Amino acid sequence: MIPIEHILLLSALLFIIGVLGVMLRRNVIVIFMSIELMLNAVNLSFVTFARSLDSMTGVVFIFFIIVVAAAEAVVGLSIILSIFRTRKTLNIDEFNLLKW
Amino acid sequence: MLTIFYIFAVLSVLGALGVLFLRNPIHCALSLVGTFFCLGAIYVMLNAEFVAVIQVLVYAGAIMVLFLFVLMLLSSKDSEQYVNKWSVGKILAGLLSLGIFIQIAGLFTANELQLGSKGEYPLEVVEEVGSITLIGRLLFTDYILSFEIIAILLLVAVIGAVVIAKRRFQ
Amino acid sequence: MSQIWLVPAFPLLGFILNGFLGKRFGTRFVTFVGPLAVGMAFAQSLVLFFQMLEAEGNVLNEHLYTWIASGNFEAGINFTVDQLSGLYLLIITGVGFLIHVYSVGYMKGESGYYRFFAYLNLFVFFMLLLVLGDNFLLMFVGWEGVGLCSYLLIGYYFEKDSAAEAAKKAFLFNRVGDFGVLSAVMLIFLSFGSIEFATVNAEASTRLTEGGTLVTAITLLLFLGATGKSAQIPLFVWLPDAMEGPTPVSALIHAATMVTAGLYMVARLSHLFVLAPFTMNVIAVVGATTAILAATIAITQTDIKRVLAYSTVSQLGYMFLAMGVGAFGAGVFHVMTHAFFKALLFLGSGSVILAIHHEQDMRKMGALKNKLPITYVTMLLGTLAISGIPFFSGFFSKDEILWKAFSSPFGSPWLWGIGFLTAGMTAFYMFRMIYLTFHGDSRVDSHVTEHVRESPLSMTLPLMILAALAVIGGFFGVPHVFHVIPNGIEVYFHDFFAEIPAGHGNVSTEWTLMILSVVFALFAWFMASRLYHSGFEIASGLRSKWEWAYQLSLNKWYVDELYNSLIIQPGRLLSTHLLWGLFDQNVIDRAVNTTGAVARSVGNTIRPLQNGLIQNYALIFTLGTFLILWYMT
Known about the structure:
Chain B: InterPro entries: NADH_UbQ/plastoQ_OxRdtase_su6 (IPR001457), Nuo/plastoQ_OxRdtase_6_NuoJ (IPR042106). The complex is a heterotrimer of chains A (100), B (170) and C (633). Chain B is mainly alpha-helical and 170 residues long. Chain B contains seven helices and no strands. Chain B has helices at 2-21, 25-45, 49-74, 88-109, 123-129, 131-140, 144-165. Chain B is globular. Chain C has helices at 6-54, 83-106, 113-132, 136-154, 161-192, 197-207, 213-229, 238-241, 247-256, 261-268, 270-273, 277-298, 304-324, 328-355, 373-387, 393-407, 413-438, 446-449, 457-472, 488-492, 507-532, 537-545, 547-554, 559-606, 614-632, and strands at 60-70, 73-81. In chain C, strands 1-2 form a two-stranded antiparallel ribbon. Chain C starts with 5 loop residues before the first helix and ends with a helix. Chains in contact: A-B, A-C, B-C. At the A-B interface, helix 1, helix 2 and helix 3 of A face helix 1, helix 2, helix 3, helix 4 and helix 6 of B.
């Protein structure tokens, strides 16, 4: 058996890399990918806990998470598309109109 | 078994780091696909075959393809500025992330990690009935309401995406 | 089951139908629903009345549901029909029904016809609530409700400035009185632990000491409310202005029913009021003073409705005089007879006003008796009744009051004297009105003259019925001295009102006083006919001789001006200079502005934080997560 601490550590590591990606990268799409990465890290811990607790709930949750992620990706990418049409850039620092 | 896990673990971390450090967004996306495959393999090791399959099909197959499509569609010429200059914010971001990781890792590796009571699907049951059967049963009994709602969510997302992304003709 | 709730339910239903559907369904629908609702209520009231007479203790009770229950405070929607509310029921629904029928003719073709009937139905509903409620709170709901309807109906022609002003005036003056009622109710709850009339009346003598400060305060406050609603000094000035409303409204609300609500309250709480002799004296004196003051004003008014309005104030003063000397039965009796003849007179004046194309000035009337025969005869009967000519209804009730004012232990010859004078003046100004309106030479505009027609049957029929009631209504309470039939009113009200000690005086005194007042009334009639029948030389001669008195009376004793300079102007000065100029501007406005300025400067300071850079937000978000995790581990 794989020790669950190790899988959880892996999930934490992936999550933190995702967080860093969101905070450090400039390209909107890459930021989006980092978010997907964070979601996957969480999925991993869900599966781990489900297995170690002999429960199926965590797995069912993943099903929902993946669906939500898909929906989010579709809507998010279409927003990015329409922003790109007006601003001609993917640099997130340019998307700063929504303030004050 | 353990060795295979470590290999996949290292590979997935490498893929994630690729997302973080590669310049070209398309490379980032491909590296992310690699991570997803590795995670799928780990799911298999955890007896969650169904999750592994949809991980590969939906994530690696559908969502990432969508990302790549969009990337190629936009083909932004402005070079992705990676962190060349070390600003205070970026150092702070690194330090904070490190702090959070240490805290989470401390939580996970603590000796008194509380896991609660055992559920009703031990490994033998899962292997005997099959995880897909079990998930299906749960989805259509206990979680039927959530299941229907998520279906509507998908529908709304599709319509929303079309409405947002379509060109507006003046 | 007695089904008391049906009585107010019918007018309420009428209000809902008329108010919400009347505009869509049109005039015929409203004409059908409005009077029918009140007619049904009248039918049910009759049933209830006779049930009540046969019931044990002459009381019917009905508990609908508990409205408020909080601690030891309880108020229910409970209806009671007893001798007092039974009589009031009949007056309200009966006279109300006649006036509804009359309004069909009077308001014909007015815009907002449905609105008028909706308000009128609503008024009847609230008035019924007022008299049926068995506790103060329910009565107060009705009390406020009728005030609201009065406001709405006075301001019926709201596009007219004077009507809107009059409505506001009525509303504000009533508020002053309501303050009194509310305070009194709170005091009553404090001292009785209950706000039910039955409890208060039954326990008044055990819980409160006779003549004590508390009972005096309570009753004085209640009386303050009564002066507001029933137009007594000092709050009477709104009633004459209320004549801006359509004439049926004046007849129903400002003569027959609503203004007697104050009297109803005093009569309802007779057991409480007799415990406060001081208040009783105040009531008697205020009533008598109001009676004579209003009578002196009525003498010189030229607007036909104003004459009647001041006459109403004066007659209400009479009723309070009766209450004040402990003659509750006589007071309520006068409420009844007054409802008949005053409604009749108002409706008659409405008929005249309509006939000569909305002219209310008596100087532009005259010689209408042949053109408006039914109106003339019925109004003459009403005038005979109000003037106290023997064997008409007003004679019996007024005489009973005068006798009690003289003989009761609370009374005095002075009070009788004032009442006596008022009675004579009443006869004088009422016949003055009759002569100016119907006799003499025509002063009607020539182009109007040929259009003058008697009113339609829907208006004259109520007039005739009311005239019949005004003539015979008095035989309900024939005084003892006649020895013909027993005094119905005393039999009816046996044991209902508080006992007061027997009065002094004997039969021969009563006869003397009665004959005196009759002679005085006849003399006043004679004087009025001399002065106003034809040619006004004597009248104008008198006028120039007593110019100052004439001016005083014509200008209503300058009460409005007095209130204006004593209360309104100082209030305005206080508001402009102190409250607005000093407090409002320097304290409140400054506080408000400072709040805004603080918020703005704080916003300016921290606004750069919201710089639109999503990654900055993410950084702060992460910081928050870090801190929370740190705190939790």
